[in-house]
Amino acid sequence: MREQAPKSKRGLQRVTEPDVGGQPPPTAWHGSPTLPHATEYFVATYPISSRARAHTSSLSLSSPLPPHDKSYSSSTLPVQPHDSSSSSLPLARPLRSSHRPPSSPAMAASIVCSSLRAAARPAAMRLAAPCRAAAAATPFRRFTTSRMSLVRKYTKDHEWVDLSADGKTGVIGISTYAAEQLGDVVYVELPEAPASDFVDQGDAIGAVESVKSASDINAPVRCKVVAANQLLEEKPATINQVPEDDSNGGGWIVRVEVDEEGARQVGELMDAEAYKAFIEE
């Protein structure tokens, strides 16, 4: 049995489940029941429109719904009998499976209204979410104004040169292997920039001093210095951190202009794999 309380303000009925002894426990309108074995819930008793009721009658359910009546209450809901041999508490409502009909006309009306809204929704709106998901999964290539590098080559003196795609400009620095061998860099001597003349391949264009030793920086190819990395004067240790970074804040040494002879000399230098084999010998 279930105790039925008067209707609340919004068409709801309060239903209190009995405890194990079969007597309804005292409850309050706000908060939890005063006894731990009581369950309180509310059942909607809103009327259903004629259109919703007509659509509900066409639904294929495992068992028919009771006829609509404004006086319909929770007393018609099935209650699972309590097995006294079991130590578990009685279930007020059986577990609902996918084939069980709605437990109240209000719930059936809600299902019908949801179905009608989905059927009336335009196809474009139904496709909007999948299209957004597909667009989010599509990779986009981000283009920047940074210089496009064609190839990076290395010398036996452990300098590297990055030649641009047009073969007319480049960036020069020292390799990671050279930076590790030098140890902590404390001073970097930079050339004057921009220079007025080209320097030949192998000519010194700067120097690096560390706590261990000092070493010249030689031009990997024939080139003319157009800019020097002034950051290295303030933070020479940048070479130890990112020696092969040719971006702003990197450890590159100079930016240069390359002529046809210099571009040809780049092709004679070692690529990354050949340089790796060279330093491992």
Automatic annotation (TrEMBL):
CC cofactor: (R)-lipoate
Low complexity bias: start-end ranges: 84-95
Lineage top rank: taxon: Eukaryota
BP-aspect Gene Ontology terms: glycine decarboxylation via glycine cleavage system; protein lipoylation
Record keyword Mitochondrion present: yes
Cofactor annotation remark: Binds 1 lipoyl cofactor covalently.
Pfam families to which the protein is assigned, alphabetical: GCV_H (PF01597)
InterPro entries documented for this protein: Biotin_lipoyl, GCV_H, GCV_H/Fam206, GCV_H_sub, Single_hybrid_motif
CDD domains: GCS_H
Subunit structure: The glycine cleavage system is composed of four proteins: P, T, L and H.
Name of the protein described by the UniProt record: Glycine cleavage system H protein
Origin species: Purpureocillium takamizusanense
Encoding gene per record: GCV3
